[in-house]
Amino acid sequence: MPLSTINNSDQLPFAISIGEPSGIGPEIILKSWSERIKQKLPIFFVVGSEQIMRETALKLGLDIPLCAVSTHTEVNAIFQKALPVLDIGHDADFEFGNPSTRSAPITLGAIEKSVEMIFEGKAAGLITAPIQKSFLYQSGFNSPGHTEYLAVLCEKKTSIPEMPLMMLVSNGFRVVPLTIHIRLAQVAESITQELIQKTCEKLHQAMIQDFGLNNPRIAVAGLNPHAGEDGTMGKEEQLVIRPALDRLRDQGMNISGPLPADTMFHEAARTKYDAALCMYHDQALIPVKTLDFYGGVNVTLGLPIVRTSPDHGTALDIAGQNLANPNSMINALKLAQKIYINRVSGHV
Questions:
Q1: For residue 10, is pLDDT > 90?
Q2: For residue 98, how far is the Cα from the chain centroid?
Q3: From CA 217, how far away is CA 169, in angstroms rounded?
Q4: For the stretch 237-257, what's the b/e string if a residue is b when 16 or more beta carbons lie within 10 angstroms of its beta carbon?
Q5: pLDDT value of position 196
Q6: Which of 144, 189, 200, 282 has a CA between 20 and 30 Å from the CA of residue 221?
Q7: 255 phi and psi angles, rounded to 5 deg
Q8: CB within 8 A of 3, min separation 6: which ones?
Q9: DSSP β-ladder status, 173-177 and 66-68
Q10: Other Cβ atoms within 10 Å of 321 Cβ, number
């Protein structure tokens, strides 16, 4: 079944949630706006706090004009002259490099407001600046991460249970982890034929809808060294992964695997597939971050909203020092626009 798509005008701006104020999120947002013309970025606005954005610009010595807005039409009118900020009324004291629970209302409120605006037809999609989950947990936040939290927010709007997928994208390389934020000791027991099938089906549909590929090629990694080597190094490939992939192939999907993970990611191998499915978090994220540490993008597939994010964290060690590289945020904006255009053009 096709993923749902919110029918918005192609003139709508993108929302960027402010993220953790003590990290580099506000800095890379400011720097991305400075690159708007050179990088041909879509129109966007910040959801969060004008005070935090102004203090960040002042601290970093960035001469960037800011303008408070209340509607998406105001964003379009002033974007080229100033960075639009939709203030949600949760200003907080913050210190670069030292997050606290005081910032939880602004961090979570910005995400919630952004999702609300998308469903109201006031924003085209969401780009999320990094959050500091450890301090959010102390404030009562109970989702494993951004991806899962967005699924909860979307389900509240649609009453449809969501199964989001986390995809990492870098220079045309796309990879999805089957299991995400769980302990490595839990991975093998968490891999089931049903999970593999549902994930591949959702990935297949997302590659059509979001990336415009009519017959996407999906490569699937094995769990064990050498993909189990005929069962001598583990039997998950024989008993779980391969049977699931065979059923998907019977459905007409273009799927290869299970493949040895150590030979899947060199340059020649990457030309043979459009997306890779890995069995666990680091198996997926290490290659993409090795290929392009500063430019990778995190994409949430399988939701009725467009959502991308920089593929890095809050970088507290360099916050407030004007050292943050905005390339990942810039790429997240560009990719959000491409996905949105594919969705509204009807690639379902």
A1: no
A2: 24
A3: 15
A4: beebbbebbeebeeeebebeb
A5: 97
A6: 144
A7: -125, 135
A8: 202, 205, 206, 209, 210, 301, 302, 303, 304, 348
A9: unpaired
A10: 14
Q: What is the pLDDT of residues 233-272, one digit of tens each?
A: 999 999 999 999 999 999 999 999 999 999 999 999 999 9
Domains of the chain: 1-165+303-348 (3.40.718.10), 172-291 (3.40.718.10)
CA distance 79 to 15: 12
pLDDT digits (tens, 9 = 90+) for 136-167: 888 888 887 788 899 999 998 888 777 789 99
Strand-strand pairing, 297-301 and 165-170: antiparallel
DSSP string across 190-204: H--HHHHHHHHHHHH
**Structural contact between residues 299 and 339, judged by C-beta atoms closer than 8 angstroms:** yes
Residues in the chain: 348
Helices then strands, counting H and E runs in the chain, come out as 13, 12
Cα–Cα distances (Å) from 159 to 20, 110, 112, 151, 304, in that order, read 29, 22, 16, 11, 12
Q: Among residues 191, 170, 194, 169, which one has the least CA distance to residue 247?
A: 194
**Orientation angle between helical segments 242-250 and 193-209, nearest 10 degrees:** 40
| CA–CA gap between residue 67 and residue 73 (Å, rounded) | 13
Q: Of 184, 186, 166, 185, which Cα lies nearest the Cα of 176? A: 166
Q: Three-state SS for 187? A: helix
User: 92 or 278: whose pLDDT is higher?
Assistant: 278
Rounded Cα gap, residues 93 and 161, in angstroms: 36
CB atoms within 10 A of CB 186: 11
Beta-carbon contacts of 175 under 8 Å, excluding residues fewer than 6 positions away, are 167, 168, 275, 276, 277, 278, 284, 285, 287, 288
For residue 47, give both structure tokens. Answer: 């959801």
